[in-house]
Amino acid sequence: MIAGQSVLGVIPARGGSKGVPRKNLRSVGGKPLLAWTIEAAARSRYLDRVVVSSDDAEIRAAAKALGAEALERPAELARDDTPGIDPVLHALSALPGFDWVVLLQPTSPLRSTEDIDGTLRRCLDRGADACVSVSPARETPYWMYTLGSSERLERLLPSAALPDRRQDAPPVYVLNGAVYAARTGWLSRSKTFLADATVGYPMPHERSVDIDTEQDLQLVDLMLQRNS
């Protein structure tokens, strides 16, 4: 609990994966990818209950073996085009009564327990209904372009918004997919973690890798082995 309010942790792990087949069960740093998120969640000071939401029987069995609770997700909520919020809303419907929910994607195995708890604390400290983790953008949009007609360069942002020097550009951030936290009532109404009132929790690049390809998986495997 945090400030006397209950918190549900949801780890979505569907069986299908186009980029990296069966990635949630692939070995990374000597253990299944799924294990890193389960273990980080188990160490949280604030998560009262952690469930792995999956349509896949093998993943649910693995989750239980790793000490987590498994929640069977309907197949229609595990398709390639299923919005990411749907498994969270399904979990809230199946397990009502929590004040907060935290979404933890298993594709972010380098996120720490402190990142989980820090995201929740930021919601309370800022009086916000939602907080999501972000990392500094490696490139700034102030000097980005699209290709218009005849392949002519067109600025992504209007020229009037550009600072005089690159070093004067304000810092910008990107979602890193590691932690999403929100009040359950607010999330049920808004059906998104991202709204005008959402605040950000900055994380460094080294904990913000999101596994989407075989190359990502190999990189994280090397990083975890080096740090072990």
Write out key terms for the chains shown.
228 residues, globular, two-stranded antiparallel sheet, alpha/beta, seven-stranded mixed β-sheet, 6 helices
Structural write-up:
The longest helix is centred in the middle third of the chain and has 14 residues, at 113-126. The protein is 28% helix and 23% strand. With 228 residues, it is an alpha/beta fold. It has helices spanning 33-42, 57-65, 85-94, 113-126, 184-190, 214-227, and strands at 7-12, 27-28, 31-32, 49-54, 69-72, 100-103, 130-136, 145-147, 153-155, 173-183, 199-202. The chain has 6 helices and 11 strands. The strands form 3 sheets. The protein has a 7-stranded mixed sheet with strand order 5-4-1-6-10-7-11, with helices on both faces. A two-stranded antiparallel ribbon has the order 2-3. A two-stranded antiparallel ribbon has the order 8-9. 36% of the residues are buried.
Architecture blueprint of SSEs:
Blueprint: E1 7-12, E2 27-28, E3 31-32, H1 33-42, E4 49-54, H2 57-65, E5 69-72, H3 85-94, E6 100-103, H4 113-126, E7 130-136, E8 145-147, E9 153-155, E10 173-183, H5 184-190, E11 199-202, H6 214-227
Parallel strand pairs: 1-4, 1-6, 4-5, 7-11
Antiparallel strand pairs: 2-3, 6-10, 7-10, 8-9
